[in-house]
C-alpha cells in the first residue's frame, strides 16, 4: 500500500542552524501539508501546498519557515535558524486529487531536537 | 474557526472492557470528522472518518464512531479493548476544499491486563 515517507526519522541540530526536513508524498497526490507536534501537545497545522504554492498557513509558519517541492517527488520544510522551541515531531501529509473526504495520509514523522 | 475538544486526557480500561472516547467539535457547516491513533514514537494512523450519510461509521481495528449533530460530538467506541489498543487517540475536524485539519489535544489510552 502506498505511504508517505519522511527523512530523517530523527534530526539533532544546534540552535541557529538551518534544517531541511524531507517528505515523499504518495505518488499521485497533489495536496501537501506539514504539521508539528511538540512533545505531549496536540498536532498543529503549519502549512499546506498545492500547485507549487502555499495555499494556507498558520501563525506558527513565520519567515523562518519555508516549503518547497524541488522535484516531482519530494516536499521539504526548511527552518532557517532553528530555535529551542522548534523541537517537535514534524509530520508531512498528503491528499489525492480525487479524495472525497479530505482524508490526509500522514508520514511517520521526523523528530527534531534543537540543542 | 473550527475547534476540537477531547475532555479526557487519560483513560485506563481493562482488557476486554468496552471503550468510549469523547470528542466535541465546533464548526459552522457540516464537518469532516476523523479519528487518528498514534502509538508511541509512531505517526498518525487513520481509524475512521465521517462526512455525510450514516451517522455510525465503522473503522479499522474494530473501532466505530457515532456523529451526533445535536451534541456536536463524534465519540469513538470499541466493544472490547485489546492490550494493543494502548495508544494516543486524536479527534480531528476538517473543512471542504482540502483545508488543514484541526486536532484535539488527544486522549491517552492505557489498557490493564
Please, could you describe this protein's structure?
The complex is a heterodimer of chains A (115) and B (113). Chain A has 115 residues and is mostly beta strands. Chain A has no helices and 11 strands. Chain A has strands at residues 5-7, 10-13, 19-24, 29-37, 43-50, 53-57, 65-68, 75-79, 88-96, 105-106, 110-114. In chain A, strands 2, 4, 5, 6, 9, 10 and 11 form a 7-stranded mixed sheet that branches. The radius of gyration of chain A is 13 Å and the shape is globular. Chain B is an all-beta fold. Chain B has no helices and 12 strands. Chain B has strands at 3-5, 10-14, 19-21, 24-26, 32-38, 45-50, 56-58, 64-68, 73-78, 87-94, 102-103, 107-112. In chain B, strands 2, 5, 6, 10, 11 and 12 form a 6-stranded mixed sheet that branches. In chain B, strands 3-9-8-7 form a 4-stranded antiparallel sheet, with no helix packed on it. Chain B starts with a strand and ends with a strand. The mean pLDDT of chain B is 92. The interface between A and B is medium-sized, with 25 and 25 residues.
In terms of structural class, how would the helical and strand content of chain A be classed?
mainly beta
Low-confidence stretches of chain B: none
Distance between the termini of chain A: 37 Å
Number of helices of chain B: 0
**SSE series of chain B:** EEEEEEEEEEEE
What gyration radius of chain B follows from the Cα positions, in whole Å? Answer: 13 Å
Overall mean pLDDT of chain B stands at 92
Head-to-tail CA distance between termini of chain B: 41 Å
Beta percentage of chain A is over 45%
The parts of chain A where pLDDT drops under 50 for at least 5 residues are none
Amino acid at each position: 500500500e502506498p505511504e508517505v515517507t519522511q527523512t530523517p526519522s530523527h534530526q539533532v541540530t544546534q540552535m541557529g542552524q538551518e534544517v531541511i526536513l524531507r517528505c515523499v508524498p504518495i505518488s499521485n497526490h497533489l495536496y501537501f501539508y506539514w504539521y508539528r507536534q511538540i512533545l505531549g501537545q496536540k498536532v498543529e497545522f503549519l502549512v499546506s501546498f498545492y500547485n507549487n504554492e502555499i495555499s494556507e498557513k498558520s501563525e506558527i509558519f513565520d519567515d523562518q519557515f519555508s516549503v518547497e517541492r524541488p522535484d516531482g517527488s519530494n516536499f521539504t520544510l526548511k527552518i532557517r535558524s532553528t530555535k529551542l522551541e522548534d523541537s517537535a515531531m514534524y509530520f508531512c501529509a498528503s491528499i489525492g486529487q480525487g479524495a472525497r473526504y479530505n482524508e490526509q495520509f500522514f508520514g511517520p514523522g521526523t523528530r527534531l531536537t534543537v540543542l | 474557526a473550527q475547534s476540537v475538544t477531547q475532555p479526557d486526557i487519560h483513560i485506563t480500561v481493562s482488557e476486554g472492557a468496552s471503550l468510549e472516547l469523547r470528542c466535541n467539535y465546533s464548526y459552522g457547516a457540516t464537518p469532516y470528522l476523523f479519528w487518528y491513533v498514534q502509538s508511541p514514537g509512531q505517526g498518525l494512523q487513520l481509524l475512521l472518518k465521517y462526512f455525510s450519510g450514516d451517522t455510525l461509521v465503522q473503522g479499522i481495528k474494530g473501532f466505530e464512531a457515532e456523529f451526533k449533530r445535536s451534541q456536536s460530538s463524534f465519540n469513538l467506541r470499541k466493544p472490547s479493548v485489546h492490550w494493543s489498543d494502548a495508544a494516543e487517540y486524536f479527534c480531528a475536524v476538517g473543512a471542504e476544499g482540502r483545508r488543514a485539519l484541526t486536532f484535539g489535544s488527544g486522549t491517552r489510552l492505557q489498557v490493564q491486563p
